[in-house]
Amino acid sequence: MYNSKIIGLGHYVPENVVTNDDLSKVMETNDAWIQERTGIKERRHVVKGDGDTTTTMGVKAAKIAIERAGIDKDDIDFIVFATLSPDYYFPGPGVLVQRDLGIKTVGALDVRNQCSGFVYAISIADQYIKTGMYKNVLVIGSELHSHGLDMTTRGRGVSVIFGDGAGAAVLTREEDTTKGILSTHLHSEGQHAEELSLIAPGMGNRWVTDIMEDNDPNDESYYPHMNGQFVFKNAVVRFSEVIVEGLEKNKLNATDIDLLVPHQANLRISQFIQKKFQLSDDQVFNNIMKYGNTTAASIPIALTEAWEEGKVKSGDLVVLAAFGSGFTWGSVIIRW
Questions:
Q1: Within this chain, do residues 287 and 310 fall inside the same structural domain, yes or no?
Q2: What pLDDT, on a 0 to 100 scale, did the predictor assign at position 265?
Q3: Residue segments in the chain with a per-residue pLDDT below the cut of 50
Q4: What was the pLDDT predicted at 293?
Q5: For 175, phi and psi rounded to 5 degrees?
Q6: Considering its fold, how many domains does the chain have in total?
Q7: Using alpha carbons only, what angle is made at residue 232 by residues 230 and 234, rounded to the nearest 5 degrees?
Q8: Which residue range(s) make up the domain with 208?
């Protein structure tokens, strides 16, 4: 048996910065309202026509991660791509990354677990490496939300939250099982699926042709829906549970955590979890203030920035945790 370990990290965000004041020009909102509820000051949005897509952003992040890993792209044995905003309905972006990076004909897997997508993707890569099937796995989380948001007052409860960007990690084999990814923990609760969802278009609900024929300006089914208070209440419970589960699995305590990197859903959620586990500001990394919620990209972007700032060091206990649409949630316990 092996463990897996992260040997390369990279991220990419569009240059276009959208502030809360910018949003107040297109909808009834303001900087104080947004910051009070979410902690977000600004986010990045792709400008139409500049060439950025979910795939191309993922490729840019992946190139950085591969270079930092000190390996060649042809050393990659498998690709796992997490997103809720693929370039195409099908095929998924995993194969597009394989093509655009010029990697040999390795397998490519797409993960559709939204905010917990990167945690699920890391868990998949970890299992493939632990069983000896693959040695080097490229994991990407990338999202382009801005082109699918309702940028009006009607949609402000959701649209002010989300941003665009990508993060990537290269995982490889670690023979010392006291190091690397110690365990991963995944859960779901589908009975609440519609509380955070995008209903249309869908083959089982409303087809694209239905929406085009109706041409109903009041139809909100093709915009994201979120029952914010309900999601918040569930998130703080599930975040706590899955972090505790990971710590107990490895006979660890909250006091052993050197750095918690939570999914950047809402700064208030992160602050609640920080207080519950009695962690200092130095023990929790947040960057939602700059980027908003980038869904599957949020953890790899945050983890990359934390590493770049020297907040992740050899021997540190690093915990990743996420909760989101599905509902799905999970955690990753890492001895760096």
A1: yes
A2: 93
A3: 209
A4: 97
A5: -80, -25
A6: 2
A7: 70
A8: 180-335
230 shares a domain with 152: no
Catalytic-labelled residue, pool 263, 266, 286, 287: 263
What CATH number does the domain containing 105 carry?
3.40.47.10
293 carries an active-site annotation: yes
Catalytic residue among 20, 266, 287, 293: 293
Q: Are strands 78-82 and 137-143 parallel, antiparallel or unpaired?
A: parallel
pLDDT of residue 330: 98
Q: Do both 131 and 165 map to the same domain?
A: yes
Helix (H) or strand (E) segment spanning residue 33: helix 31-38
- At how many degrees (to 10) do helices 117-130 and 298-308 cross? 70
How would you classify the pairing of strands 180-188 and 165-174? Answer: unpaired
Q: 111, 121 in Cβ contact below 8 A?
A: yes
Q: For residues 66 and 72, give the distance between their C-alpha atoms in angstroms, rounded to a whole number.
A: 7
Clarify whether residues 168 and 235 are in a common domain.
Answer: no
What single letter denotes the amino acid at residue 117? Answer: G
One domain for residues 236 and 289: yes
DSSP per-residue string spanning 280-317: -GGGB---HHHH-B-GGGHHHHHHHHHHHTT---TT-E
Catalytic choice (115, 136, 286, 287): 115
263 carries an active-site annotation? yes
Q: Model confidence over 211-229: pLDDT tens digits?
A: 555 666 666 666 667 787 8
pTM for the model stands at 0.93
| pLDDT (0 to 100) of residue 233 | 87
Residue 328: per-residue pLDDT:
95
Please indicate whether residue 115 is annotated as part of the active site. yes
Residue 53 in tokens: 């897509």
**pLDDT number for residue 230:** 84
Q: Print the SS3 string covering 124-151.
A: HHHHHHHCCCCCCEEEEEEECCHHHCCC
Q: How far apart are CA 227 and CA 32, in angstroms?
A: 21
Task: Note the pLDDT of residue 35.
Answer: 97
Same domain for 265 and 313, yes or no, is: yes
